[in-house]
Amino acid sequence: MITLYDYELSGNCYKLRLLMGMLGVDWTTVPIDFYPGREHKSEWFLKINPLGQLPVIEDDGLVLRDAQAILVYLASKYDAVGTWYPRDNPALLGEIGQWLAFADGITGTASAARLHDALFYDFDVEAARAGAHRLFRILDEHLWFGEQEGRDWICSASHPTIADIACFPYIMLSEEGGVPRQDYPAIRRWCDRVKRIKGFTVMSGVFPAGPAKAA
Amino acid sequence: MLDTAKTRWHPVAATYDLPFRHVFHAQLLGREFAVWRADDGYVNVWENRCLHRGVRLSIGINDGRELKCQYHGWRYSNRTAGCTYIPAHPADAPARTITNRTFAAVERYGLIWSAEEPQGEVPELPGLAEGELLTLRGIPVNAPADVVAARLEGYRFQPNGRTDGSDAKVSVEASNEFSVALRAVDGEASTLAVFFVQPVDSNRSVIRGVLDGKVEGAVRLAVLHHHNDLLSKLRDIAEHEAQAQPVPAPLEPVIDRVSPELAEMPEETKHGRKATIRVEVARKWQAADGIAGFELRPIKGLLPTFQPGAHIDVHLPNGLIRQYSITNGPGESDSYIIGVKLERDSKGGSTCLHETVRQGDVLAISEPRNNFPLRRDAMKTIFVAGGIGITPLLAMAQALSNQSLNFELHYFAQNEAQLAFPEKTACLGTSLKPHLGLSPEQTGARLREILSGYRSDAHLYLCGPGPMLEAARHVAAEAGWPETAVHFEYFKNTNVIDDSSSFEVALARSCVTLKVPAGRTILDVMREAGIDMPSSCEQGACGTCLATVIEGEPDHQDVYLNDAERKSGTKIMTCVSRAKSARLVLDL
Ligand SMILES: N[C@@H](CCC(=O)N[C@@H](CS)C(=O)NCC(=O)O)C(=O)O
């Protein structure tokens, strides 16, 4: 069984809980006392991940760090239908990779602002917020034109991919870092769509959506 | 400039911002709005705060009929914004005063227009024809509206179909502080672009552009990209300019506060049986054998919020006043739909409605009152309707169905043709269980089946003819249902009222003592003394004129209170009940 080194309030760990929930795979959790315990910087944890970061998983003897890398692994291995990370579609894989990197950019900005506000980290919060707004502007425009072309998701597919999962948590939690989403209406609509994916789960600070209108 | 801005119409969203089941987060002049489209198409523009704790409603859930606040689940109705349910008080009907502030909403040119204190109409633009235009992507700008509007006068673009060119002539056709109309001409091609600048706050705006002419397919996308790119550049320049200026203080809209008392207390009482609302019979039809359906639409304005279980008084042309339950599902707030059964022994009420009242007639009705509130925290809810008793239960069943809550609606009638409102019951799927053509004995047996195996967290709602209600209450008691889980509503009180007693009533809060002689009611005597007291059926069935007893022994003659409530001696229906003691003290 998959073991997730987890912290409930971490958006990066939430990415994995989300995908595993949607894929319907089971996992066990090793809770890490991230705050205030700083257990991710403890000697035993640094042996698992020398970067001292969450999340990390262990599966069949494989130890993996980095939320995006783990999403790639989980989707490749456990998605029977093969839509979350379609291995036979190079163009789509390229797009997914591009937006996974973008998601890490959201972690570096929106999540940093949140760590500053919620967990009192010492960051240049203004720079982090400005960076988040810059990324959100880009994504909002991308999603708005997607809607105009009949596309609901971040990548050019008729179904969500792990790029949607990677971007979702820190967008949804951005207000906790003082980054409102009012100016990004297409992002807000996309958030509703992500919340309506079968198997969607919440975390603290993320609310569920109501049902969509029956066709 | 911004002081007069309050009275003008501004766009606050675009049509594409309001897909079904979404709540858009808008802002105008510092005031935030939750904007949502109900499944019936109605666009709601509300103050963006839940009355409960001020939580933003824009993070709430649009279920197509109501908006539910995320924190404590308060529900607000489409159109009226009145509260229909408070989970923390599952047994109580929320006071009608609990209503969010609503703002005007007009949909035009692919935009949603609103205003804080609108004067006049939404601007009509000569060159723009509804349905023959293209609404551009809204561009939020961190700069004051006047900075943005000034920049827009110098906006240069290509007409539709020529977006790959670069030498169109652009002229300003009109402009004011919040809008600029430009025309680009390149050879034969000519496009009118009107840009509205939505003043979001002192230092924030949204550019909302509309082009004349319909374009489709690839050209449409090219045009949208063309303007998006150019407007993004304009945005960057305007933001740069704004950054060089001192940041203006954010606008502080005045938020009307609903006082906690108003938000928690029952509505203020009103004198007598008032019929303050005028409605038109928009539709009259046969809802079933012997049952006429009436759709009542307001002559002007909106109808007040109703909750499932609520009834209205209908004042008939012949002077009679009758009570009818509202059958509407949640959010169906543009009219009230009632069902009227032609009574064989009609004293003129149902006959008048069946025979005299026609489509197009105007009737006076009271505001809705809810003395039959529905809990929504039960694990299981059983509704038992007999005949026309379906009406309040139909509203309740639709409310639970909308929230995907577990219920069964048992509907007893003589035959299929007597099942009313088939178009509404059809939406309840297998939760609707008709029981047709049963004798009284068979009905009793069926009720014993339905009500057997009481489990805690179940609630039962009964409405139907008196004998059937008596039987059902009896069966429920035998099957172990506690009185607190059995809710009922009688159509009428068939008890023979004994009004031979005479006694004294002291009204503790009003500091008056009144004598109630034989032949007169407490309600009458109080009214004569100028005491406000609402009432409706005035025969001890509906629960409207309920008062709290502080001292003395009531002589109950109503059918509204349940046995436990009667025994407790703390409540009285002032329209029919009297006193066994020489004196009653009421909390009025
Ligand atoms: N690129 C990594 C970033 C992970 C990350 O920033 N994790 C946070 C918790 S959500 C963390 O462990 N921060 C502690 C640190 O970087 O020192 C990923 O996507 O997994």
From TrEMBL, chain A:
Matching Pfam families: GST_C_2, GST_N_3
UniProt entry keywords in alphabetical sequence: Transferase
One Gene Ontology term of the molecular function aspect: glutathione transferase activity
PROSITE patterns: GST_CTER, GST_NTER
Domain spans labelled GST C-terminal: 89-212
Keyword match Manganese: no
Residues of the GST N-terminal domain: 1-82
EC number, UniProt record: 2.5.1.18
Entries under PANTHER family matching the protein: GLUTATHIONE S-TRANSFERASE-RELATED, HYPOTHETICAL GLUTATHIONE S-TRANSFERASE LIKE PROTEIN
Protein name according to UniProt: Glutathione S-transferase
TrEMBL record, chain B:
Key words, A-Z: 2Fe-2S, Dioxygenase, Flavoprotein, Iron, Iron-sulfur, Metal-binding, Oxidoreductase
Rieske domain: residues covered: 9-114
Gene Ontology MF terms in the entry: 2 iron, 2 sulfur cluster binding; dioxygenase activity; metal ion binding
InterPro entries for this protein: 2Fe-2S_ferredoxin-like_sf, 2Fe-2S_ferredoxin-type, 2Fe2S_fd_BS, Beta-grasp_dom_sf, FAD-bd_FR_type, FNR_nucleotide-bd, MRET, Riboflavin_synthase-like_b-brl
FAD-binding FR-type domain span: 274-375
Domain annotation 2Fe-2S ferredoxin-type: ranges: 503-588
Stored SUPFAM superfamilies: 2Fe-2S ferredoxin-like, Ferredoxin reductase-like, C-terminal NADP-linked domain, ISP domain, Riboflavin synthase domain-like
Alphabetized Pfam families for the sequence: Fer2, Rieske
Protein name: Ferredoxin-NADP reductase/phenylpropionate dioxygenase-like ring-hydroxylating dioxygenase large terminal subunit
Organism expressing this protein natively: Aminobacter aganoensis
